[in-house]
Amino acid sequence: MTTTASLVFVINPHDSEKAERFKSQGWDALKGNPAYETLLKYADTVFRTELPNETPPVREGIEHEILLKPGTTPISVKQWRQSPDQRKTIQEWTKEMVQAGIIRPSTSAFCAPTFCVKKPSWLAYCARLSSAEFSYGFTGHSDASQRRHLWCNGYSCMDLLWGYYQVKLREADIPFTAFSTPDGLFEYLVTPMGLSGSPGTFNRLLQKVFRDLRDVMRIYFDDIYVYTKSEDVDEHIAALDRVLKRCEEQKL
């Protein structure tokens, strides 16, 4: 098995496009919306523009597992040269990710090099680790989610901020994610993007978290669709409140 494009993007969630778009729109844009008061109730707990400064809890007994092929030996790739600006960007990102509980210093025998794409984003090249993984089969059910709203009268959609980073990584697998930085070796405490099993773990977690709310919602990757058949706006707002309450309880 070979791979040519298995990359783990490690973009600073504090500068994510979603968060910046949310900040620019503001709550004033929602005034006059029938759901405004309900949404405002969750302004500080659900509609965050930054991830909390702590590693996420294990939800519903689910952690992401990295299953390597038998006989896999530690994979270490030498770091190539970086410009002063690139080194500074990576150092700033590393500091913020440690504070956010997303990564920690590592002593792993595994090591992936890093390189910058553009500020404030950079990525770790993990093609060799991905090629050592078992393949996972997973496809989202976008057609079902998109068709369902055709027969409903109330429809809302939201997405989770940096969804994979909200799924804890199994402790035994953390060393596999180690990558080099100007300040040394670091490793993920949460699910990295780009690994073959990440989408399946994330979807399985959300399906369990919201399993008893499927009468009013569907999930497609990190998108949450809330729908109601009734023309009663209050009924849709009540459904929206149920979903947001669950997000608050689960710290999503």
UniProtKB/TrEMBL annotation:
InterPro entries: DNA/RNA_pol_sf, Rev_trsase/Diguanyl_cyclase, RNA-dir_DNA_polymerase, RT_dom. SUPFAM superfamilies: DNA/RNA polymerases (SSF56672). Residues 143-252 form the Reverse transcriptase domain. This is Reverse transcriptase domain-containing protein. It comes from the Eukaryota. Pfam families: RVT_1 (PF00078).
